[in-house]
Amino acid sequence: MSKVSVIGAGSWGTALSILLAKKGLRVSIWDRNDGLLNDIKKARENIKYLPGVIIPQNVEVYPDIIECIKDTDLIVLGVPSHAIREICKNIKGSLNDGQKIVSIAKGIENDTYLRMSQVIEEETGINDVCVLSGPSHAEEVSRDIPTTVVVSSRKRTVAEYVQDIFMTPKFRVYTNPDITGVELGGAIKNIIALAAGISDGLGYGDNTKAALMTRGLAEMTRLGVAMGADTFTFSGLSGIGDLIVTCTSMHSRNRRAGILIGQGKSVNEALTEVKMVVEGVKTTKAAYELSKRYQVEMPITEKLYEVLFQDKNPKYAVTELMLREKTIELHENEEVVTREQKSWEL
Ligand SMILES: NC(=O)C1=CN([C@@H]2O[C@H](COP(=O)(O)OP(=O)(O)OC[C@H]3O[C@@H](n4cnc5c(N)ncnc54)[C@H](O)[C@@H]3O)[C@@H](O)[C@H]2O)C=CC1
Ligand SMILES: O=C(CO)COP(=O)(O)O
């Protein structure tokens, strides 16, 4: 039976520890916050991040990260994306031969623009890192609500190994070889979720949100394809699937932060109030800069960047989006444009 270590006892790391422990796997968990570990050990509950959910006895807490990963088959990296590199630096000298790593963080490293699997590979030298992504709020997974996700790795055997480890009757895991698309979908949907939250906070309606989600998906796909991803991945669980859940769920930290900003709070006030990690803020900066580098049109991302980093009034940002130059719907796809030109009745 595999032994798994989970690095980061936030909401997602804890929820997946519970899932694996319920399957009968031995799970070791580490966090930099000793208070969290004490609560898990003594109260069998993560009171800060996942209150009300019992944590099985076979989740063992380790205040020492090296002891936590020792003799485990799989390491799950569940810290926010800005912390992944530092964690890898700490553990790289203590990895066992054949030990696998799966990243569950959804972000793009600011400054380097690397995806999380690339950061992990760069730091540890492991070349078959796996990622797990998809519509999966910790609050629901930890309560056995049916959920589907996707795992990806450069190596099919590794993706299938991780698929088997996580699969349960309530947690269905698919594989997808397009690691670039899986990671970019998971990261960029947080930008659109922030925008959808702002729209809700401004008091706009379902029409506005549907527009943001649809045009947001076009932006995700455009940047993803420019960076080497497969278009079809964005119609899958780690693309539109995660976009739907994050833009509509009250569990979403990104959407909740957006609602507060739309209601008039500053970005810092919103982040403080949400308390948990809101990855979309840093990802907006990275994606905005990437859109310039790849010369990809990302108007929603651009307006959100101005709201978050240049103090633009969110209402003006929406007006500016609505007043953009008129165009045809699928203008980015040359094949579709040619087909459409031929199908108009003259
Ligand atoms: N919460 C969810 O439902 C889901 C979250 N994710 C992703 O999982 C990642 C973690 O998110 P959550 O668990 O929600 O975060 P969280 O805010 O619930 O917890 C973050 C955890 O990371 C630790 N941490 C923060 N900064 C750190 C640092 N510099 N070094 C070491 N540890 C640090 C904190 O002590 C805390 O335990 C994010 O990338 C998020 O997008 C993905 C899918 C679902
Ligand atoms: O990625 C997630 C669900 O799939 C979590 O999204 P939030 O960080 O917005 O809560």
From TrEMBL:
<dbReference type="GO" id="GO:0051287">
    <property type="term" value="F:NAD binding"/>
</dbReference>
<feature type="binding site">
    <location>
        <position position="106"/>
    </location>
    <ligand>
        <name>NADPH</name>
    </ligand>
</feature>
<feature type="binding site">
    <location>
        <position position="138"/>
    </location>
    <ligand>
        <name>NADPH</name>
    </ligand>
</feature>
<dbReference type="InterPro" id="IPR006109">
    <property type="entry name" value="G3P_DH_NAD-dep_C"/>
</dbReference>
<comment type="function">
    <text>Catalyzes the reduction of the glycolytic intermediate dihydroxyacetone phosphate (DHAP) to sn-glycerol 3-phosphate (G3P), the key precursor for phospholipid synthesis.</text>
</comment>
<feature type="binding site">
    <location>
        <begin position="8"/>
        <end position="13"/>
    </location>
    <ligand>
        <name>NAD(+)</name>
    </ligand>
</feature>
<feature type="binding site">
    <location>
        <position position="136"/>
    </location>
    <ligand>
        <name>sn-glycerol 3-phosphate</name>
    </ligand>
</feature>
<keyword id="KW-0443">Lipid metabolism</keyword>
<dbReference type="InterPro" id="IPR013328">
    <property type="entry name" value="6PGD_dom2"/>
</dbReference>
<dbReference type="GO" id="GO:0046167">
    <property type="term" value="P:glycerol-3-phosphate biosynthetic process"/>
</dbReference>
<feature type="binding site">
    <location>
        <position position="134"/>
    </location>
    <ligand>
        <name>sn-glycerol 3-phosphate</name>
    </ligand>
</feature>
<dbReference type="GO" id="GO:0141152">
    <property type="term" value="F:glycerol-3-phosphate dehydrogenase (NAD+) activity"/>
</dbReference>
<protein>
    <recommendedName>
        <fullName>Glycerol-3-phosphate dehydrogenase [NAD(P)+]</fullName>
        <ecNumber>1.1.1.94</ecNumber>
    </recommendedName>
</protein>
<keyword id="KW-0444">Lipid biosynthesis</keyword>
<feature type="binding site">
    <location>
        <position position="189"/>
    </location>
    <ligand>
        <name>sn-glycerol 3-phosphate</name>
    </ligand>
</feature>
<keyword id="KW-0547">Nucleotide-binding</keyword>
<dbReference type="GO" id="GO:0006650">
    <property type="term" value="P:glycerophospholipid metabolic process"/>
</dbReference>
<dbReference type="GO" id="GO:0141153">
    <property type="term" value="F:glycerol-3-phosphate dehydrogenase (NADP+) activity"/>
</dbReference>
<feature type="active site" description="Proton acceptor">
    <location>
        <position position="189"/>
    </location>
</feature>
<dbReference type="InterPro" id="IPR036291">
    <property type="entry name" value="NAD(P)-bd_dom_sf"/>
</dbReference>
<dbReference type="Pfam" id="PF07479">
    <property type="entry name" value="NAD_Gly3P_dh_C"/>
</dbReference>
<dbReference type="InterPro" id="IPR011128">
    <property type="entry name" value="G3P_DH_NAD-dep_N"/>
</dbReference>
<feature type="binding site">
    <location>
        <position position="106"/>
    </location>
    <ligand>
        <name>sn-glycerol 3-phosphate</name>
    </ligand>
</feature>
<keyword id="KW-0521">NADP</keyword>
<comment type="similarity">
    <text>Belongs to the NAD-dependent glycerol-3-phosphate dehydrogenase family.</text>
</comment>
<feature type="binding site">
    <location>
        <position position="253"/>
    </location>
    <ligand>
        <name>NADPH</name>
    </ligand>
</feature>
<feature type="binding site">
    <location>
        <position position="242"/>
    </location>
    <ligand>
        <name>sn-glycerol 3-phosphate</name>
    </ligand>
</feature>
<comment type="pathway">
    <text>Membrane lipid metabolism; glycerophospholipid metabolism.</text>
</comment>
<dbReference type="GO" id="GO:0005829">
    <property type="term" value="C:cytosol"/>
</dbReference>
<feature type="domain" description="Glycerol-3-phosphate dehydrogenase NAD-dependent C-terminal">
    <location>
        <begin position="178"/>
        <end position="318"/>
    </location>
</feature>
<keyword id="KW-0560">Oxidoreductase</keyword>
<feature type="binding site">
    <location>
        <position position="254"/>
    </location>
    <ligand>
        <name>sn-glycerol 3-phosphate</name>
    </ligand>
</feature>
<feature type="binding site">
    <location>
        <position position="106"/>
    </location>
    <ligand>
        <name>substrate</name>
    </ligand>
</feature>
<feature type="binding site">
    <location>
        <position position="279"/>
    </location>
    <ligand>
        <name>NADPH</name>
    </ligand>
</feature>
<keyword id="KW-0963">Cytoplasm</keyword>
<keyword id="KW-0594">Phospholipid biosynthesis</keyword>
<feature type="binding site">
    <location>
        <position position="252"/>
    </location>
    <ligand>
        <name>sn-glycerol 3-phosphate</name>
    </ligand>
</feature>
<feature type="binding site">
    <location>
        <position position="253"/>
    </location>
    <ligand>
        <name>sn-glycerol 3-phosphate</name>
    </ligand>
</feature>
<feature type="binding site">
    <location>
        <position position="277"/>
    </location>
    <ligand>
        <name>NADPH</name>
    </ligand>
</feature>
<dbReference type="GO" id="GO:0005975">
    <property type="term" value="P:carbohydrate metabolic process"/>
</dbReference>
<feature type="binding site">
    <location>
        <position position="32"/>
    </location>
    <ligand>
        <name>NADPH</name>
    </ligand>
</feature>
<dbReference type="InterPro" id="IPR008927">
    <property type="entry name" value="6-PGluconate_DH-like_C_sf"/>
</dbReference>
